[in-house]
Design brief:
Radius of gyration: 34 Å
Shape: flat
Strand content: over 45%
CATH class of the largest domain: Mainly Beta
Mean pLDDT: 83
CATH architecture of the largest domain: Sandwich
Number of domains: 4
Number of strands: 28
CATH topology of the largest domain: Immunoglobulin-like
CATH superfamily of the largest domain: Macroglobulin (MG2) domain
Oligomer: single chain
Strand order of the largest sheet: 4-10-9-6-7
Low-confidence stretches: 240-247, 414-438
Structural class: mainly beta
Length: 438
């Protein structure tokens, strides 16, 4: 089909499922836009303008021939070298028909400096297998940077090239270990990062400056015995997203990084203390102590230690709903209460059924009017249930609802304002006119 809805050409697939169009599609004055395929009641289509792949960042030029009609493949032992190392390479040369060229064919291998000037050149002859080996010795005072190896024929026809890096690399002079204690902390508790720094093949690294950056982030709670349950926690905050959608902000936005500094003692040890903020009802958090110890020249050596912060004794989960459910039928769901270790327990939870209403309004932007869909939440019912009667599970049923809705589970308490600052707010959304788990 053309872009103006005209049939350019038709065809039928052969026994291999391949259809070949004649030259009409290429010579037509119409622009090809759509391809359709149909067999009985099965129908599909391919929209070509919407299926294009941007190839500017890929090497899609394909294999290009050269005047010598040879292909060369150059490889080495590694891509990174230090001054004073030896660069060893192997080269295989083939014809365009993938045959070995004549033996003793003269070839040239050049090594170019990062400035583009030639540093060294070797003349070689191919073996009977169409290959040769070579090596370059890099002086200790050689320039660092990106070098280029080029393979050429005897009459200077470029066959292939390869880049290598020559850099000064100084290994770490310190051996640093860091441990966070305790491994599992509570809000308001102190966590210590215990640092030990040793000079490699030497005494302890005394009087060395160190920095420790403490940070917190969300940690997904995924117990092995409950893979079909969601324990995701809502931050209770909202922001405007693309298309005016309301999106929950990450809980990590609440956390601030804290830096501690110090100096190692005579035994090469140091301690940094972090006071865990008094967070509550944010699930399980993962803390990190990113430690940097500086050697005598000021070069940093980094290590990382992690710890857990458990902000609530019980974690509530809601069993996932199928993507599609029947309309006008009651749907039941299961709630689960687990300890941070993933063991079933008993606890009271506030279960709330919320109806999601999408309202379309007309807004004026500039000199024109646009339609904008806004979501509004309407609380249908709120109940306090004891979760944990059956290995931590509790079944909750619901009657049919005429509109999409969601189920939320939280610690029992007074009804909150429009936003839901719940201790735990996992949300299960149901497709339009489907029945949510209640």
């Amino acid at each position: 089909m053309s872009s103006n809805n005209q049939v350019i050409s038709t065809g039928t697939t052969n026994r291999d499922g391949v259809a070949v169009f004649d030259s009409t599609a290429a010579t037509s004055r119409f622009r090809l836009s759509l391809i359709t395929a149909q067999k009985d009641a099965d129908f599909t289509f391919l929209n070509l303008p919407q299926s294009r792949v941007e190839t500017s960042r890929f090497d899609v030029g394909g294999l290009q021939s050269n005047a010598a009609r040879y292909q060369a493949f150059l490889y080495g032992d590694r891509d990174l070298y230090r001054p004073g190392d030896t660069v060893r390479t192997n080269t295989i040369v083939r014809t365009e028909a993938w045959q070995a060229p004549p033996a003793n064919l003269p070839v040239k291998l050049r090594l170019l400096l990062p400035t583009g000037k030639e540093y060294a050149s070797l003349r070689q002859k191919l073996s009977a297998d169409g290959a040769f080996e070579s090596r370059f010795i890099l002086p200790s005072a050689i320039m660092t940077g990106l070098y280029t190896l080029e393979v050429l024929t005897g009459n200077d026809v470029l066959l292939t090239s390869r880049q290598i890096s020559v850099e000064e690399f100084i290994p770490d002079r310190l051996k640093v270990t860091v441990q966070a204690a305790p491994a599992v902390a509570k809000p308001g508790q102190s966590v210590e990062a215990q640092i030990t720094a040793l000079n490699l093949f030497g005494p302890p690294a005394a009087d060395r400056k160190f920095e420790v950056e403490f940070s917190l982030k969300e940690k997904a709670f995924k117990p092995k015995n409950f893979p079909n349950y969601t324990f995701q926690i809502s931050s209770g905050e909202r922001k405007r997203g693309n298309g005016y959608d309301q999106e929950a902000t990450p809980i990590s936005d609440r956390f601030e990084k804290t830096t501690r500094e110090g100096t190692t003692d005579a035994a090469g040890r140091g301690t940094a203390t972090y006071e865990v903020p008094d967070y509550s009802d944010l699930g399980t958090l993962e803390g990190a102590a990113f430690t940097t110890v500086f050697d005598e020249s000021g070069r940093p050596v980094n290590r990382l230690a992690t710890f857990e912060v458990q902000t609530q004794p019980v974690l509530f989960g809601i069993k996932n709903l199928p993507e599609l459910v029947s309309t006008r039928q009651a749907v039941s769901t299961q709630l689960v209460a687990l300890t941070p270790q993933g063991q079933p327990t008993t606890a009271q939870a506030q279960v709330r059924v919320v109806r999601l209403l999408w309202e379309t309004v007309i807004e004026r932007q500039g000199g024109r009017y646009i339609y904008n869909s806004q979501k509004r939440e309407e609380v249908i019912t709120t109940q306090t249930r004891t979760v944990g009667a059956n290995r931590g599970r509790k079944r909750r049923s619901a009657s049919p609802l005429p509109t999409p809705a969601s189920t939320r589970c939280a610690w029992p308490g007074p009804a909150p304002p429009p936003t839901w600052p719940a201790a735990f707010t996992p949300t299960v959304l149901v497709t339009p006119r489907a029945i949510p788990l209640r």
